[in-house]
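Hi C.,

You asked whether I'd gotten around to modeling the 171-residue construct. I have! Everything is below, sequence then structure, no commentary in between.
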Amino acid sequence: MILTVPLEREYPGMIENEITVEDLNALKTDPRSKKTTDKKPKYNNRKQQIDGYVFDSRAEAHRYNDLKLLAWNKVIEGLQIHPVFVLQDKFKHRDKWIRAITYEADFAYYENGVHVVEDVKGVKTKEFSIKEKLFKARYPEIDFRLVRLRQNDAIINSGCSPVHRKRLSKK
C-alpha cells in the first residue's frame, strides 16, 4: 500500500512524499532502542471493534451491546454511535480563525421521547468535566448521562445527588 503523507512537520528536512506503510512504521521506530514510539494507553483501556464501530474501551463496547439490545426491544430508538456536538462555534480573533470546540459522545438515543446522550467513563478527567459543563450549558434540553460499568452492571450517575453518587462509585 502506498500512502501520501506530509512529512515536513514531523520529520524536518523531508517533503511530502509517497512512502510505503512499512517505511512509515520504520520512521516511527527509535533506532537506538529498536522499539516503536507507540505508547501504552494512559488508563489501560483496550480498543474494541463491534459491528464495524471502534470503541475506546471494553466497557464502552459492553454498553453498546446493552443499548443494541434495548433498541431491538424498542425500549430506545434512534441509537447513534459517536455523535459529535458543537460546544462553541468557531470565531475570528485578530484576523485569525479559532477552531470550534466539539465533543464526541459515546452514544445518543431517544428514550420515551427524551433525547439522551451517554458517555461511558472509567476515569473522569478534568478535560471531560469542562466539556460536560459546556455541553449542559449549550444543550439543556438533552438528558446527559455519565455511565460507569463495573462487573457487567451499568451504574448511571445522571440525576443522583453527590452523596448517592459517591455511594454508587464505592460498590
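If it helps when you're writing up: DSSP finds four helices and 15 strands in the chain.

Thanks,
B.
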